[in-house]
Specification:
The protein is of the alpha/beta class. 43% of the residues lie in helices and 14% in strands. It has eight helices and seven strands. The protein has a seven-stranded parallel β-sheet with strand order 3-2-1-4-5-6-7, sandwiched between helices. The chain is globular. Bound molecules: D-gluconic acid (GCO). The site of D-gluconic acid (GCO) has 14 residues, from loops.
């Protein structure tokens, strides 16, 4: 019998960047645990396809197409939620992009784009969601998606690394200010996961070998392997867990 602590029935979860990859896997997992899920992305067709997949599985899902890095778009999206009477109880700040280049050659515009999407957006969407959670007085959950690079750097992904390091501390800052409102904000740090964003790495034999040699599981992770941690952090089971990061990395960061 499932422990009711992990039951998300009656909750609504917004997962940013959830038309594919980790975001879609987490959206499906939260939906399978009872939540009504809001799929977000910038491409209407991709968002609709993801919603169709989830509703085809019998889950409650709807789409919200907006750019999480655009303050006005975030405000308009939440105003639309308000108008629908949609209350976001669980926010997963998952949206992220990657740009691989040596810092010596990195253009400011590329640095800024990654920081805006991978870090500033989590602040913008987090603030919009938390303001409403505080007003409702029923608490809430924020899950920020970090990375191994929340802990250690890999050459050629500096803006991503800095943003993901910031994500780890943003969860702590959110906990510092929002715990008083019964909002818990935590991070998940995925290891190397089989996603479209990592396609070039997966298809690179030497990188693939490095990933398999660098973690004790000796393999890449799968997006669905993040679901258990996401359900835990989205549920009452984690009501006294705040400001933490849980690495789902096959043990990578635990071994020399
Ligand atoms: C890269 C990858 C990583 C992974 C992940 C590792 O270029 O090294 O994109 O950033 O996606 O974040 O945890």
């Amino acid at each position: 019998m499932a422990n009711p602590l992990f039951d998300l029935t009656g909750r609504t979860a917004l997962i940013t960047g959830s038309a594919r990859g980790i975001g879609l896997a987490i959206a499906q997992g939260l939906g399978e645990s009872g939540a009504a899920v809001v799929v977000n992305g910038r491409q209407p067709a991709a968002v609709q396809a993801a919603v169709d997949k989830l509703t085809g599985l019998g889950l409650q899902a709807q789409g919200a197409v907006f750019d999480v890095a655009d303050e006005a778009a975030v405000a308009a999206a939440f105003e639309a939620f308000d108008a629908q009477g949609l209350h976001i109880d669980i926010l997963v700040n998952n949206a992220g992009i990657q740009h691989r280049a040596p810092m010596l050659d990195l253009a400011l515009k590329d640095w800024q784009r990654v920081i805006d999407t991978n870090l500033t957006a989590a602040f913008l969407v987090g603030k919009a969601a938390a303001r409403r959670m505080v007003a409702r007085g029923q608490g809430g959950k924020v899950i920020n998606i970090g990375s191994l690079t929340s802990e250690a750097a890999r050459a050629t992904v500096a803006p991503y690394t800095v943003a993901k390091g910031g994500i780890k501390l943003l969860s702590k800052a959110m906990a510092a200010e929002w715990a008083q409102f019964n909002i818990q904000a935590n991070s998940i740090g995925p290891g190397y996961i089989l996603t479209d964003m990592n396609a070039a790495l997966i298809q690179n034999p030497s990188f693939d070998a490095w990933v398999k040699a660098s973690n004790p599981a000796q393999r890449w992770g799968r997006p669905e392997e993040l679901v258990g941690t996401a359900v835990f952090l989205a549920s009452a089971a984690s009501n006294y867990v705040n400001g933490q990061i849980i690495y789902v990395d096959g043990g990578w960061l635990s071994v020399l």
